[in-house]
Amino acid sequence: xxxxxxxxxxxxxxxxxxxxxxxxxxxxxxxxxxxxxxxxxxxxxxxxxxxxxxxxxxxxxxxxxxxxxxxxxxxxxxxxxxxxxxxxxxxxxxxxxxxxxxxxxxxxxxxxxxxxxxxxxxxxxxxxxxxxxxxxxxxxxxxxxxxxxxxxxxxxxxxxxxxxxxxxxxxxxxxxxxxxxxxxxxxxxxxxxxxxxxxxxxxxxxxxxxxxxxxxxxxxxxxxxxxxxxxxxxxxxxxxxxxxxxxxxxxxxxxxxxxxxxxxxxxxxxxxxxxxxxxxxxxxxxxxxxxxxxxxxxxxxxxxxxxxxxxxxxxxxxxxxxxxxxxxxxxxxxxxxxxxxxxxxxxxxxxxxxxxxxxxxxxxxxxxxxxxxxxxxxxxxxxxxxxxxx
Length: 390
Fold this sequence. Notes:
This protein has 390 residues and is an alpha+beta fold. The chain is built from nine helices and 21 strands. The protein has helices at 19-33, 43-46, 62-78, 93-100, 146-152, 182-198, 213-221, 226-230, 275-279, and strands spanning 2-4, 35-36, 50-55, 82-87, 105-109, 130-133, 141-144, 159-164, 201-207, 241-244, 252-255, 265-269, 284-285, 297-301, 307-310, 317-321, 326-335, 341-347, 351-354, 358-360, 370-372. Strands 4-3-5-8-9-12-11-10 form an eight-stranded mixed β-sheet, sandwiched between helices. The protein has a five-stranded antiparallel β-sheet with strand order 19-18-17-14-20, with no helix packed on it. The chain has a two-stranded antiparallel sheet with strand order 1-21. A hairpin with a 7-residue loop joins strand 10 and strand 11. The chain starts with a strand and ends in an 18-residue tail after the last strand.
């Protein structure tokens, strides 16, 4: 197994005997590069994210869509995001516009109106977008397509859109209608994503049935690419369809059909974009001094000072340390008779130093963020175990 600081490839499992060596190697690698992943949903990153969850009029699915939308919104809020809830029967176009601008995550559940479809002619004033309440309190569906979405909506950089439980978006047909050809399904996916991409999205996930909360969790807890997230929870594989978008240059489509006619999972966008680029959560620096002393740990004599080392807090001088000297802390802060706080040190001289003459020096320890099966680390090393790299 491998602990890694970047997602690379998926491979078959390897003998467990290599675990310890590989783990130790990964820790060494993490220390060497001086970075570790930011914690899931860090307050600083998440507090700057806006998520909008839109639930349009959904007919017989209204109750389940409202419940799903609430669960999605609650999850986003649990990560500290600014969550806007635009739910039926008040999910009007004006309400959407009031809440969606600058959103990093957009979730829509409701009716879909895509192309190719039985409803001609093709135009994007109403197709490939949202099905919303015609007016506040009404159950009448009014469609707002790719054209007004691209014209009037401005999403955050690297925004992600999640289209859930709607027809056409993932290539699927309406219930009771015949399944599309593969060519038709591909066009539906590409067409449905394009308006959102023109509005600023860089990834559009379309799931006909699957719960999209797994995507939000992956965005907030991993450093995976969009394609890796897509190939995570719910991924079937074996029938993958990949092609460059015909609607938006430089973007790609990945479809994961469940059968030769079951098109219920699709992703369109910049598939190599990472979760960090969406959430703005960078890899956390581990080579920076913390804000407080850690015991046992390290400290350094403050710049411009030569400090006394004493045999006890407020006691007799037993040595001196020059500016910048690194010291090992062995005892927590203790108040001396002179009213100053002292830290015990074990090297380079044993004794006590006034706390206000030192600054913290420990770095944050490396933390694993992903474990993958892959022989790496110190092999081959002629120990008879994993001495061949394959």
